Every structure is written in structure tokens, then in C-alpha cells.
Queue: 3 jobs
Job 1
Amino acid sequence: MQEKIDPAKVRGEEVSQVEEIAGESMYRCYQCGKCSAACPATPEMDMLPSQVIRYLQLGLPEKVLKANTPWICASCLQCMTVCPKGVDLSKIMEGVRMMQLRHGENRIEMREFDEEYRKRAPQIAFISGLRKFQSLS
């Protein structure tokens, strides 16, 4: 399937925001695919880690923002360890997660947890999960 690339979006606002949040440049990546080969979570992902970077490089953040891959990333740093350019993909995944949350896309809802679980769950873990997966808006 061919994608239409808009030159104006290649270094567009959303892609720049992901880079700013992540503090990491995705343009150093030359698509060797080592990150995807090293990632232990790829069987669960709907998009390979190298594809996430490529879509962002091509100015197609909407593809990445619809994916579950950033939420499956465990930030284990395997990708950065094998990357010949030292790109920290886990930071980019975090930037994408933050963008999704800024768009108001929640990944969990408080009401999805039954009352019994909410009573026995460690509060710090519960709050940490809500901060990571729920929009503030």
C-alpha cells in the first residue's frame, strides 16, 4: 500500500512536538531494523518499532497515533542498546504516548476496574498507571 507524503508535514508540528517531548531526534535513524529485531514485545505490537520511526520521519504521525505499539513498549531500552546511531526509541514512544493523551485518548478508564481491585491495589501503582494511561482533560 502506498502512502501519500506531504512535504509540508515531514517536519510538521505534530512530529516536532513528539521530538520536543521525547528530547530525541528520530531523523538519526536510517532504518536498519535492529530495534525491531531486538524488541521482546514485537509479537504483541501492531506496528514494528522501526515502522513507528519511519512513519514519523515521513510526516505521518496520524498512523502512529492510532497504533497500540507505543502503549506496549516497556521502555526496556533493548532498542537503544542495539541501535548503531544510539536512538533512544523508548523516549520517542513516550513522546507518542504523551501526544495521544494530549488528544484525549485514554487507554484505561477508572470504571473498568471493579471495586474489589480498587480496594486492594497498591495506591502508588494505581496512580502511576492512571498518570501514564489517562488524559487529564
Job 2
Amino acid sequence: PPQSEVVYRPNVGLREQLLELLWGKMRNLTDSSFLDLARVVVGATIHSPERAQVWLARINEREETFSAWIRAAQKDGRLKAVDPGFAATQMHALLKSFAFWPQVTFNAALLTPQEQSNVVESALNMFLGWYEIPG
């Protein structure tokens, strides 16, 4: 679903919900138009630090939806107590370190579907392995 429609569902497994969220994020990160725009933004913010603050605020606003999802899962007793923003940043970093930064900074090739799947599954397993409260 689009980031604005991300809603925690207590009657659905965490793995299933996160898989959906991570694939949505992966689709965005591997979109060539998005990556082209990101290259322009990164270049512009290097030359104009005040612009960087504006873009950082916009990115944080978009990624707040995942923090809200984590908060809801914590209230439901399914995830460990941790700062939701910290955990969300970790999850985003797990994806972006393979499917964003190499492409934006070094013009690396887009990940293949198999590589995308490996990154999503690994990030999912790491996140749930650390934060999920066994039920």
C-alpha cells in the first residue's frame, strides 16, 4: 500500500504485514525515476545545506508512517519496547544500504528480483528476530 495507507492490523501476523510494507518500500527504492530524482536532490543538498534540512524533514515525515506502525504493534504487545523512530530507521537502513545508496552514489545496477527478495527477507528476519515478542 502507499505509505499514507500503512495501518497496523492486530488480527494479521507481523511477518505478513511487514512483508507488504517492505515490498512497498523496495518498489520505491528500485524505481529508476525515483533514483534519478534522489541523485539530483543529493547533489543539490551537498551544495546547499539549508535545502538538506527541508528534504530531511520531508523524508522523516514520509517515514513516520512506519514508526506509527511500530508504535501500534508495541501497544498490542507484539514488539519489544524501543524508540519506534530508531527501529524504523534501522529497517530503512537495511533496505537502503543495498537498494538505494549504491545506486544513488555509485550508479550501481538496480537489484535483480532475486536480490530484492533476498534483501527484503533478510531485513524482515533480522527485524523480527530482534524485536518480535514471541506469542
Job 3
Amino acid sequence: MPRFDRHDLDVLRARLEAAPDATCNAHAAWRNRQHPDCPVARSTVDRAITRPG
């Protein structure tokens, strides 16, 4: 199961700031286009967004 490391979380935070109205599906699709060798599910993005820290 893919997990986000600190770098992935920083990139996701920047993406959330750049596209705050995008859905979790849209953020997951964007991330998967950037990293087609290691795709993540919408639920992984959702957990990363709601994870404290």
C-alpha cells in the first residue's frame, strides 16, 4: 500500500494551496499523473489530508 513520506505530504500541501477547490479524486489523479509508477487511491489522499501534523 503506497504511503506518503514527508516530501509527498509537502507536495500535497502545496497542491492543496494551489487548487483548494479540487476534490480528493482530482488530487489523486494529479498525483498519479506525476508518479504513474506508484499510483495512490483517493482514500490515501484523503487520509494524508486529514492526518494531523
